[in-house]
Amino acid sequence: MGSFPNKKILLGVTGGIAAYKAAELARLLVSEQASVRVVMTGSAQSFVGPLTFQALTGNPVATELLDADEEASMEHIRLARWADCIVIAPATAGFIAKMRIGLADDLLSTLCLAADVPLLVAPAMNRAMWSSPATVENIRVLRERGIVLLGPGKGFQACGEQGYGRMLEPGEIVGKLDALFSRDHVMAGLSVLVTAGPTREPIDPVRYITNRSSGKMGYEVARAAARGGASVTLVSGPVCLPKPDGVVVVEIETADEMYRAVMDRVQGHDIYIGAAAVADYSVVETSERKMKKSDVAPQLLLTLTRDILANVAGLEQSPFTVGFAAETDDLEANAKQKLAAKKLDMIVANQVGGEEGGFESDNNALSIFWQGGNIEWGMASKKILAGKLIALVAERYSQWMTLPNK
Predict the structure, then answer these.
(1) Are 333 and 317 in the same domain?
(2) Taking all residues of the chain, what is their mean pLDDT, rounded to a whole number?
(3) Cα separation of 67 and 51, whole Å?
(4) Range of the domain at 35
(5) Among 274, 266, 195, 204, CA closest to 236
(6) Euclidean distance between CA atoms 89 and 150, whole angstroms
(7) What is the mean pLDDT of residues 294-312?
(8) Which among 172, 240, 297, 401 is placed 20 to 30 Å from 287, CA to CA?
(9) How many of the other CB atoms lie within 10 Å of CB of 55?
(10) Cα 230 vs. chain centroid, distance in angstroms?
(11) Residue 215 sits in a domain of what CATH number?
(12) Is the residue at 123 inside a domain?
């Protein structure tokens, strides 16, 4: 049996001399039992004909965004939803620039915008084009968005020059895809409960106490766990984010509602990841009517909310428990103190209040601690960090399961 049975791979081919390698890549993917569909740009067809790819894959080749025969089915949406991943090989400097700015002027660039699956890019261009400041900046942005770069390699180029910019050989790309798909199943068979977002503690019908959490990190963690093969339940506070595909979402508003939603479900899960920013305090007496403004400021009596993390970790049959800590100072000391005090298996800490990362941002930097170990990840997109975190949690969970009391 091949390495990719039942995998649906969309191969995008752009207009460079390395397009001839894409034909061999398509052949190798089919030989690994992948289902392959090919989308070609107009310039790519100047180097290799669509019939070549149709013969190799057994599927029709898509070339037009506005096709009278296909438009009724919205081809760019249909293909984007069909694929398990998209591989652009070769990816020219021009196409990489289009991806960076989100220009959607043909079928391939449009479906890249419409897809919510791993996107891999195999650059192919002259060495000077690869090292130009514009391309360097474009690649940096794509990486921050979670797009995977395959190469380029170094060697002789079609122009006669030598250096970085060669498209990786088809066999090398297949090997990297194999590694990607292997990581995809790091949580196969496991059930994961994730919390995300803020809570709102009402003062009256129109006012509440809350925090700045956007829920972005927790949602990316839930998506990454689902991609890893886990059965995922997400208990979410009020956020403005699309629900992750393949994840059961339980919507709550207050800390007490989140506590009950978690405790009612946690016993059936192997791993608990508490990424939510749960309010530490709630108002003792909530007014049933809007409190009118007056010259005298109201006095609010607050009470502590129940500690969800500590209660989950304190269960007799507790799951592998991962906490989050947002800190403004003494990050390591505070995170380790929380790790020990709440008897957590792992804690993920990040610095907030700075110019980059943290609340509402799409990027973050993380420091992860566990008993006897730690790791630091610099500023990157929350999507990338979530994928790395899920891989680390899966690794630590497998070691945790070997402990004598488990």
Answers:
(1) yes
(2) 88
(3) 17
(4) 8-183
(5) 195
(6) 9
(7) 90
(8) 240
(9) 13
(10) 14
(11) 3.40.50.10300
(12) yes
Q: What is the pLDDT of residue 73?
A: 52
Residues 108 and 199 in one domain: no
Report how many domains make up the chain: 2
d(CA 43, CA 403): 58
The secondary structure of 83-101 as a DSSP string is: -SEEEEEEE-HHHHHHHHH
**Same domain (yes/no): 83, 21:** yes
Would you state the structure tokens that stand for residue 88, as one six-digit string? 């652009």
- Is residue 313 within 8 Å of residue 344, measured between CB atoms? yes
Residues 268 and 348 grouped into a single domain = yes
What is the pLDDT confidence band of residue 68, given thresholds at 50, 70 and 90?
low
In a domain, 2, yes or no: no
Query: Which residues are bridge partners to 302 per DSSP?
Result: 283
Query: Apex CA 153: angle with CA 164 and CA 25, to 5°?
Result: 140
Known catalytic membership, residue 112 = no
Rounded to two decimals, the pTM is 0.62
Q: For residue 343, give both structure tokens.
A: 């008897």
Which one from 85, 112, 159, 240 is the annotated catalytic residue? 159
At 268 the pLDDT is 84
**Structure confidence by residue, pLDDT tens digits, 331-356:** 899 999 999 999 999 999 987 755 55
